[in-house]
Design goal:
The chain folds into 2 domains: 3-176 and 215-238, 3-Layer(aba) Sandwich (Rossmann fold); 179-213 and 242-271 and 293-316, UDP-galactose 4-epimerase, domain 1 (Alpha-Beta Complex), CATH 3.90.25. α3 (87-94) packs parallel to α4 and α6 (188-198) runs parallel beside α8. With 328 residues, it is of the alpha/beta class. The strands form 4 sheets. The protein has a 7-stranded parallel sheet, with helices on both faces. It has a two-stranded parallel ribbon with strand order 7-10. It has helices at 12-23, 80-85, 87-94, 96-108, 144-164, 188-198, 217-228, 246-257, 281-287, 295-307, 311-315; strands at residues 3-7, 27-32, 51-55, 70-73, 111-117, 168-173, 176-177, 202-205, 211-213, 215-216, 235-238, 243-245, 263-266. It is globular. Bound molecules: uridine-5'-diphosphate. Uridine-5'-diphosphate is lined by residues 80, 175, 187-188, 191, 203-205, 210, 212, 246, 269, 272.
Length: 328
């Protein structure tokens, strides 16, 4: 039986990865410091014989007894609101955390896949974003702590591959959504659905002409699984190329939820990328992967999940305090 260490296991993507790798018959060790993760996301796994959870911050030395076949490094705050609240932890998990896990991979002779991001392209000047594009990132802006940590993460990973021959994989993840996203993490989908469920107006930042391309979580997890088993060390974009403006997206959420609320406009945060769409040619060619779940279906499933949350959960609108935090 193979063993995989998944960092960020109690988070949105980490918890779905735990489910998938247990289903594939692996022994899963989940690790999380629970700063942004939530044990609720993995409590259905507590009785699984082959699942183990370790409460630990990967920015500190990581020790795992016994053999390890794979490491998936998914620990990180992942929402612009979180970067504001915990910028130093965001930097540390991408840098020290990655360094510790690369060292662990080297000592265990384990394959390591690290979660990079479309944010390495910053506010892109090349569209759609292809892996060969170096990006357009403001290192000292509010997103810099995340973007630069992730860029460092890629550099460190490639260096461990080149100089220590560690078996590495780099995935660049584009906007992903689905059940277990935090309702109050400030990102656009939970923000809009939360607002609709609470009977509040939907807040569009800027004029709503900025674009994103949303990938349903099951598709992303499948891309991660395929990349782990493919033979490439270069970064691979994984996301859904179906691009939409934030205004159109608000309309879709209004239709989905049947809310009578209107759209209101707020200032566009600093360095908010104006357009984003993955070029997935490489993923198609190397992994034979492309997304299967269209937005209508993915949004329906996600809405059902948010509706099932308790009223107490729904009242949490912590992110509102930080609204406009990075205004120009
Ligand atoms: N956004 C918005 N209203 C909200 C939250 C976000 O209009 O209540 C916008 C945000 O300015 C950005 C887009 O939606 O242009 C996606 O933001 P998100 O934080 O989800 O992710 P990003 O892709 O920017 O990291």
């Amino acid at each position: 039986m193979k063993t995989v260490l998944i960092t960020g296991a109690a988070g949105f993507l980490g918890s779905h990865l735990c489910d998938r790798f247990l289903k594939e018959g692996l022994r899963v060790i989940g690790m999380d410091n629970l700063i942004t993760g939530d044990l609720k996301n993995i409590e259905h796994l507590y009785n699984e014989q082959h699942f183990e959870f370790i409460h630990h911050d990967v920015s500190k030395f990581v020790h795992i007894p016994g053999e390890l076949d794979y490491i998936l490094h998914f620990a990180s705050p992942a929402s612009p609101i979180d970067y504001l609240k915990i910028p130093i932890q965001t930097l540390k998990v991408g840098s020290y955390g990655t360094h510790n896990l690369l060292g662990l991979a080297k000592s265990k002779n384990a394959r390591i896949l690290i979660a990079s991001t479309s944010e390495v392209y910053g506010d892109p000047k090349v569209h759609p974003q292809v892996e060969s594009y170096y990006g357009h990132v403001n290192p000292i802006g509010p997103r810099g702590v995340y973007d630069e940590a992730k860029r460092y993460m890629e550099a460190a990973t490639m260096a461990y591959h080149t100089y220590h021959n560690v078996d590495t994989r780099i995935i660049r993840i584009f906007n992903t959504y689905g059940p277990r996203m935090r309702l109050n993490d400030g990102r656009v989908l939970p923000a809009f659905i939360g607002q609709a469920l609470r009977g509040e107006d939907l807040t569009i930042f800027g004029d709503g002409s900025q674009t994103r391309s949303f990938c349903y979580v099951d598709d992303l997890i499948d891309g991660i699984y395929k990349l782990l088993h493919a033979n490439t060390h270069d970064p691979v974009n994984v996301g859904n190329p179906s691009e939409i403006t934030i205004s159109q997206f608000a309309e879709e959420i209004i239709k989905l939820t049947g809310t009578n609320q209107k759209v209101i406009y707020k200032d566009l945060p600093q360095d908010d990328p104006m357009q984003r769409q993955p070029d997935i040619t490489r993923a198609k060619e190397l992994l034979g992967w492309s997304p299967k779940v269209d937005r209508a279906e993915g949004l329906r499933i996600t809405y059902e999940y948010f509706k099932s949350l308790s009223a107490e959960e729904l009242r949490k609108t912590e992110h509102n305090k930080f609204e406009g935090y990075i205004k120009k």
